[in-house]
Structure formats: structure tokens, C-alpha cells
Design goal:
Strand order of the largest sheet: 1-2
Oligomer: single chain
Radius of gyration: 18 Å
Strand content: under 5%
Helix content: over 70%
Largest sheet: 2 strands, antiparallel
Order of helices and strands: HEEHHHHHH
Shape: globular
Length: 201
Amino acid sequence: MTHSQIKKLTTLGMLSAFAYLSVFLLRIPIIPAAPFLKYEPKDIIILMAGFIFGPLSAIAVSVVVSFVELITISTTGIIGFIMNVLSTVAYVAPAAYIYHREKTTRSAAVSLIAGTIIMTAVMLLWNFLLTPLYMNVPRSVVIGLLGTAVLPFNLLKAGINSILAFILYKPLVTTLRKAKLVEEGSASQKAQKQTASRSTN
């Protein structure tokens, strides 16, 4: 294993720990109609991992954090684990993929909007499919909650996470670079930026 790979694993491990701690310390119901839907900020940290290292790293961190949550503090069992992974991956993977194609402020904004829309759509579908099993209620009850609870919850959750991620990403990367845990952009990325700069002149 190379030194670069060790630094990457160390950083991902640290971000995974922070993501788990954020769930452990902060879980807030934000939709009165569905107090069982609780906001926690872990997706912000997992998104940071995706922005730094790419969508596959974000997916890996999501699975690890959700699994640790399952075996320690979760009260929703395997269905809660599945929903956690689906929700986070639907948000962070598209956002990280879009941002990694072009690392600009505009791309970051587009990626966060795309992640919000995709996560909201995915969670409407999977709440329709899985929540009746989790809550042991008729599907008709869940259908009634989709528009009044599930939709606003996911839009609000992703909106809060997107705003905070947009604000915190650069300070976090700067800190990690000073700690020598994240390297500066690769030569290929610098070349792409130089090419883009020349094309606009």
C-alpha cells in the first residue's frame, strides 16, 4: 500500500468517524407530521468525502457509517440500514460524480441541486415500498405521508445539507491539506483547468 493510499484511508476513516458522531450527537425531528423522520448532519461529511475522493469513496463511507449505526444506536433494524444507505448514496454519489467532472463553484452548485432532486425522488419510491413493512401499516397510510411528510422532509434535509456543505467544503479541504492528509490537485486536473482557462480567453 502506497503512502498516498494510506493517507486516503486515514482521511476516509476520520470522516467516517465524524459522520457517525454527528448521528450519535444530533438527531432532530423537523416535520411535525412525522416525528420518526429525524434530521442528522452525517450526509454533509459523507458528501465532503465524495467531493474530495469521488463517488465510490462516498458510497463506501455511507455503507460503513450506516452499518456501524445499525449495530450500535439504530432502532430501525435492517430496513433502517437499507433506507439510510439508499438515502445517503442517492444524495452524495450523483453530487460527487458531477463535481468530479468539473471542480468549479458552478459545478458544485449544480451537483448539490442534482443530489437533492435525486435523493428526494428515490426516497419517495423507497418509502412507498419499504415503510409499510417498517411501520406495519397499510400502504394507503404511507401514500398519505408521502406528500405531507416524506417529500418536505427530504427536500428540507438535503437543502440544509447542501447549504452547509457549500459553505464548509473549502475550509475543510484547506485544513486537510495543511495537515497533509489531502494532496493538491493532480497534474491532470491542473492541465484541465489550464485548458479551460485558455479556451475562455
